[in-house]
Amino acid sequence: MALIVQKYGGTSVANLDQIRKVAERVIKVYTAGNDVVVVLSAMAGVTDSLIQLAHQITNDPSRRELDVLLATGEQTTVSLLSIMLESMGFPAISLLGHQAEIVTNRAFGRARIAEIRADRIRELLSQRKIVAVAGFQGRDQQGNITTLGRGGSDTSAVALAAALKADVCEIFTDVDGVYTTDPSLCKNARKLDKIYYDEMLEMASLGAKVLQIRAVEFAKKFNVPVHVRSSFIEEEGTMVVEEEEDMERLVVSGVTYSKDEARITLSKVPDKPGIASRIFTTIAEAGIIVDMIIQNTRKGGLTDLTFTVPKSDYPRAMAIQKDVAESIGAEHVIGDEHIAKVSVIGVGMRSHSGVAAKMFTVLAKENINIMMISTSEIKISCVIEEKYTELAVRVLHHAFGLDA
Ligand code: ADP
Ligand code: ASP
Ligand code: MG
Q1: What is the pTM of this model?
Q2: The domain containing residue 102 runs over which residues?
Q3: Cys-Cys with 78: which of 94, 124, 173, 324 at CB 3.0–4.6 Å?
Q4: For the segment 299-310, what is each residue's pLDDT rounded down to a tens digit?
């Protein structure tokens, strides 16, 4: 007998037929004698529609109220699943984030889980109840409803699995595992049987939305085995696991892309101490996260500074930088929203040279210009024009030997 946490994403609970299939799958595991906690997302498209509704009232809805609104999506699906399970003759109970005592900080819209007091869930499991927990939501210390950021149900599931010391956390989704790249973009993407936490962390942070990055952080920290698999077929998916010494790996194990950033350049900035500090302090004070930064030196004591910010913060960042540019005497500010970041990832890069050179050569052959570069021990990212995203992913996937 095991304790199993299963998470079903939006497409897996998109309508009552799907919810019935989820119930059947849960019952199978339950009747085999296991304890089951089910974490659900909102029905596909519901979170987006709720955001749109709020934005029909104002461009800038209160973050607290937006979280109260968004939490209704998951409230709907957990209650429907419990009703479904009971109607099929099985004991079930739904819990919202606060009832499951998922305590977060107060960062509405991107709250972080601070603590899960899983006593109530444990008690319900000991009564042989199937517990359906609303994903994506929690409460702060004062009891306000918070949400964990888009894709946050993954994190709810893995965090609950960690708190309950579950034997496995199964992430059921619309693909049958983690692939070498997004299978919806590249038909040669190949399913991985296993991926290491560190690689999955990079993949998630660099655009592979199959798992939310915080979920992978929890999995790694608490050593939760995560199994990413299909809601629609029975086959095994991908295990996300700790790194093993002796496993033979390709140097590059995945390619990702993200279109979620925009680029800002301050040109002809006076090249003297304190200027970069001025530019980035104002951005930080606005709570905007900067990703890549490059500086080019010009003649005559001038420099150009380019950096990227999340697209959602781009209008605000541009407005702030126009003021900064004026106050520091920079000539102008240029923005570009039509960029993409493509990355190659693999723990094998730690012991191999030449990956960056190969990546640049492959992109050059297709005449794709590289605007920015950043590297870490196990990844290389290049910013390119957005319109070349698919081409870049495809040729890199091929060049690094990942094609199926
Ligand atoms: P859910 O609603 O179940 O949480 P998501 O849409 O959040 O599902 O995540 C699954 C999607 O992630 C897939 O449909 C796929 O297009 C996308 N994806 C991106 N990169 C990858 C990858 N490397 N492997 C698998 N899926 C990926
Ligand atoms: N419903 C939320 C979203 O669409 C959370 C999730 O699906 O994981 O982002
Ligand atoms: Mg998701």
Answers
A1: 0.93
A2: 3-174
A3: 94
A4: 888 999 999 999
